[in-house]
Amino acid sequence: MEQVGNFKLYSLEEAMDEDLGKVGTPKRDAFEAKLEEELRAYHIGEAIRQARKEKNLTQEQLGQLMGVQRAQISKIESGKNLNFSTIARAFKAMGIPANLAFGKVSLALW
User: Fold this and answer.
1) What are the tens digits of pLDDT across the range 31-67?
2) 2-109 architecture in CATH?
3) Which tens digits make up the pLDDT trace of 84-102?
4) How many CA atoms lie within 13 A of 45 on its CB side?
5) CA atoms within 13 A on the CB side of 79
6) 3-35, pLDDT tens digit by residue?
7) Which of 22, 31, 46, 84 has the fewest CB atoms in 10 Å of its CB?
8) How far is 66 from 62, CA to CA, in rounded Å?
C-alpha cells in the first residue's frame, strides 16, 4: 500500500489478497482457476476468428457452413458456449485439418 495525499493506493496483488484471500486459499484458487478457464476460451475464440478471417469468411458464411446462426458464431468467437465438438466443427467447416487447427489453438493458449 502506498499513501498519496489522503488516498491509499493498493497494488492488484494487495487488492486480490484483501478481497479473495492469499494465494493458496480456496476462494483465491477458485477465482484464479475460473479466470484461467475464461482466458483459454477467449484465446480459442480468437483462434477461430483469425482462421475465419484468413479464409475470408464472414460470420454468416461460417455459420452456414456449420449449420448455425451468425449469432452463435459471434458467441463462439467471444469464447462463449465452447466445447471440443464446437471447436472441431468450426475448424472442419473452414477446411482446416484438426492437427493444424489444434496446434494453433494450443499455441494460442500457452
Assistant:
1) 999 999 999 999 999 999 999 999 999 999 999 999 9
2) Orthogonal Bundle (1.10)
3) 889 989 999 999 886 655 5
4) 18
5) 15
6) 888 898 999 999 999 999 999 999 999 999 999
7) 84
8) 6
User: Domains of the chain: which residue ranges?
Assistant: 2-109
Best CA proximity match to 79, nearest among 109, 50, 32, 44: 44
For the question of whether the overall pTM of this predicted structure is more than 0.85, the answer is no
